[in-house]
Design goal:
483 residues; alpha+beta; BirA Bifunctional Protein, domain 2; five-stranded mixed sheet; 23 strands; 36% helix; globular; binds 5'-O-(N-(L-cysteinyl)-sulfamoyl)adenosine; binds zinc ion
Length: 483
């Protein structure tokens, strides 16, 4: 890919993103009289649906059961776990009236579902024999976000919230579950070609009510870091708050252990952001609503134009027979150039041009979206060629995304090095850390970054010094400008 076509996308990312989600008719945002809420338009909805198919498959395959809990959570339930409500207090939307009647108990629009799910689990689960239990739901959650809201990235109605909630009869089993959650997200992001780093969040930035939080982050094209998924070990915090006990194998009663993990609309935002270029989306074939667009190039006599159209339809049929999602753009009011522009913006992985030349020779012109390279392919070989091209595109966009991510990681062992890094303020900085909050906070203030947490799995920094206090370093901490 030439530097030219990926330039504006990177240099002016924020505007690019707002432009492309409208231009490609993915998500209509910013025109509704309520902040932080948008519309999944038909094309975007299809991308979303395919991403969710993958999400469901990954959970189902590992014994998760899809469920649907109530949207409204009574204040009494939401307040049971004190850390949890403290964390969400200022982000909750409250329903206070039913019609004209004030409600006795206010109802929260779920900001997440630990409390109402634990409530039901305590009714359903009585014995270790029923465990582990793994539920998930894909729903809207509502958070009165105070930071600047952004389409798909910081919503107040998060419409694509996949939350998994699990129950276990021991701490060890809950730890195993956190590893499984990480494996699920690795597979999800790998399939979508999205690069990530995994960190254990610092104590002061863990999920409200959790023992600890493991987070997936990615570097966006503007060099800032975005959290794209999280897994939490909830310990017994919620089961104790709900007085939820089970019978263990040895006959005793105890509080079970829980985990939860979630991803959101941000996954789709990231596909758009990471793989895009100046012309628009570059969709992985796996989730592209249209994988191949066939463009008839009508020239010559009416008879010749009809021949071109017939050949275009035949090509589409052949591809469809090979299991490919195809569209023939027969619109008469648009010239081929305008159609190229249209489908490039929508990120269709492969284009096939059919003109008179192609009709005569039976050799088609194939163009791939990620590199814009062109190929001449005999009609008989088209299906095999296109399917191989899908694989190549998938590998290529994943590799260039990872190359960028890897090049965005820097290690520094002194504050001077760190300050030089901060002048660019792009990507992620790793520094030895003594594990004292005070030192990380100093780095945050001085470099105007946030602490992402520590490298996961834990990596020792033995023998190194904390660049802030000079004390023994324990591990590596990560810092970045974040979304
Ligand atoms: N109950 C837990 C696990 S589901 C939970 O709520 N975790 S969370 O708060 O970390 O959210 C899960 C993921 O949702 C986050 O990692 C982040 O990627 C995404 N997310 C959180 N808030 C928003 C928001 N306002 N807009 C879009 N995505 C969000
Ligand atoms: Zn220190």
């Amino acid at each position: 890919m030439s530097a030219i076509t990926r330039d504006r996308w990177r240099s002016n990312f924020s505007e690019w993103f707002d432009w492309i989600i409208g231009e490609a008719e993915v998500y209509d945002y910013g025109r509704y009289p309520v902040k932080g809420m948008g519309v999944w338009m038909p094309y975007g909805f299809q991308i979303r649906r395919r991403v969710l198919e993958l999400v469901r498959e990954l959970h189902d395959r590992r014994g998760h059961e899809e469920v649907l809990f109530p949207l409204l959570i009574p204040e009494t339930l939401l307040r049971k776990e004190s850390e949890h409500i403290r964390g969400f207090e200022d982000e909750v939307y409250w329903v206070t009236h039913g019609g004209l009647e004030p409600l006795d108990v206010k109802l929260a629009l779920r900001p997440t579902s630990e409390t109402n799910i634990t409530y039901y689990e305590s009714l359903w689960i009585k014995s270790y024999k029923q465990l582990p239990k793994k539920y998930y739901q894909i729903v809207s959650v509502f958070r009165f976000e105070t930071k600047a809201t952004r389409a798909m990235i910081r919503l107040r109605e998060v419409t694509t919230f996949k939350e998994a909630h699990t129950v276990h009869d021991s701490f060890e089993d809950s730890e195993r579950q956190v590893l499984e959650a990480i494996e699920i997200y690795r597979e999800l992001f790998d399939a979508l070609g999205i690069p990530y780093i995994i960190s254990r969040r610092p104590e002061w930035d863990k999920f409200a009510g959790a023992l600890y939080t493991i987070a997936f982050d990615t570097v966006m094209p503007d060099g800032r870091v975005m959290q794209i998924g999280t897994a939490h070990n909830l310990g017994q915090n919620f089961t104790k708050a709900f007085d939820f006990k089970i019978q263990l194998a040895d006959g005793t009663l105890d509080y079970p252990w829980q985990t939860s993990y979630g991803v959101s609309d941000r996954v789709i935002a990231t596909i758009i952001a990471i793989h895009g270029d100046d012309r628009g989306l570059v969709l992985p074939p796996l989730v592209a609503p249209v994988q191949v667009v066939v463009i008839p190039i009508p020239v010559g006599s009416e008879e010749e134009r009809n021949a071109v159209l017939r050949e275009a339809r035949r090509v589409a049929e052949v591809l469809r027979g090979g299991g490919v999602r195809v569209n023939v753009d027969e619109r008469e009011e648009l010239r081929p150039g305008a159609k190229y522009y249209y489908w490039e913006a929508r990120g269709v992985p492969v284009r096939v041009d059919v003109g008179l030349e192609e009709v005569k020779t039976g050799v088609l012109t194939v163009v791939r979206r990620d590199t814009l390279e062109r190929y001449k392919v005999a009609r008989e070989e088209l299906v095999g060629f296109v399917l191989r091209l899908f694989d190549e595109i998938t590998v290529n966009i994943k590799k260039r995304a990872w190359d960028y991510m890897t090049s965005s990681l820097r290690r520094a062992e002194t504050m001077d090095e760190a300050r030089r890094w901060a002048e660019e303020k792009r990507g992620i900085l790793e520094m030895p850390w003594c594990s004292r909050e005070e030192c990380a906070r100093r780095v945050e203030e001085e470099l105007e970054v946030k602490t992402l947490g520590i490298v996961w799995p834990l990596e020792s920094a033995e023998g190194l010094r904390c660049p802030v206090c000079g004390g023994q370093a324990v591990t590596w901490a990560r810092y970045a400008k974040t979304y």
